Amino acid sequence: MGNCLGTRKKSPAEIAPSELIKPAPVISPPAPVIKLYGHPDSFTTSHIRLALSYKPVTLQFVPSDAQANPTIMYKSDVVTGSVEEILRYLDEKFPDSPVVVTNNVWGWCGAKTPAVVWVVMLQHRSMNWHMERMVKWAEDMGARGGNASGDPSMGSPRMEVKKFAKSYSHLHQLLLEHAQMEEMVMFQILESADRVSYDANIQYDLGLCKSANEDHARDLPIMNGVKEEIKIIGVMNVGSPDYQDALTRLLSRLYKLKDNCKQHFEEEEHELLPLMEATELNKLQQERVLQQSLDAMRETHSHLFRFFMEGLCPQDGMHYFGLIKRYCDNARVSLMLHMMVD
């Protein structure tokens, strides 16, 4: 299943040309059925529905007016309890796609790491995954040169380019909003600190934020160049030498953007984000910072939220949603949940 929600078919980004010729598919047994009883407007119910979207099951949701904890039924089991209890039960029964967020540290991160740092790092993971996906997809289109279709569900080569353009447009918006969020929120917090120290012998250097801003400015022309190259390919004669040359240029730009983003994210995670721990944000401050971050990434956390979450593995997706649920207002969380489970 990769990082994606549900049992989505492979896209051309995940299909090698050799996979296009396959034996007759093996008929798999039907997915097990889980019944979920809960109030349709309850965050707890929606949280469980989100977790079930990662599992290889068929969900039968039964809306209930009761305000009690949601209940799931699987075979002869009846489980009622908190979100954590039900998620642990689901991981026990279906362990392949774990949804319980563990206490394992991630590098230097730990239980006291500010929520905004986790948000930034999880966003890095999603953007890296989508970037890798776009590169693989472009490689596959280049290998075929417009002379053969990839995934049959993509339609004609021209239709495939349109779908490629739409997917890159989503990633382009995510990259822009992520950079804006860092510049408007996170960097402002660091720059307002009075020489914050995160280590006894290391003090904060304003040059780190300046360097990160310069990276954002450096990558913007490349991002826009990819978008323009896709537009050009979309109006060219499919399979012509010029078409193949344009695909080669597109792939070259994507390679450069992918490498730049990967290096930029790694530098932030090793040099800049650890400094946020020294700011010692309290709960109210963290809540305000998360609200400001979501405001700066409005498109990502509205109609692009499902796209963003597809770039995270189940545990990371549940972690990200848990952070938002903990710190952000109910109306915003409700909207994002509906994007995922409706």
UniProtKB/TrEMBL annotation:
<dbReference type="InterPro" id="IPR012312">
    <property type="entry name" value="Hemerythrin-like"/>
</dbReference>
<protein>
    <recommendedName>
        <fullName>Hemerythrin-like domain-containing protein</fullName>
    </recommendedName>
</protein>
<feature type="domain" description="Hemerythrin-like">
    <location>
        <begin position="119"/>
        <end position="275"/>
    </location>
</feature>
<dbReference type="Pfam" id="PF01814">
    <property type="entry name" value="Hemerythrin"/>
</dbReference>
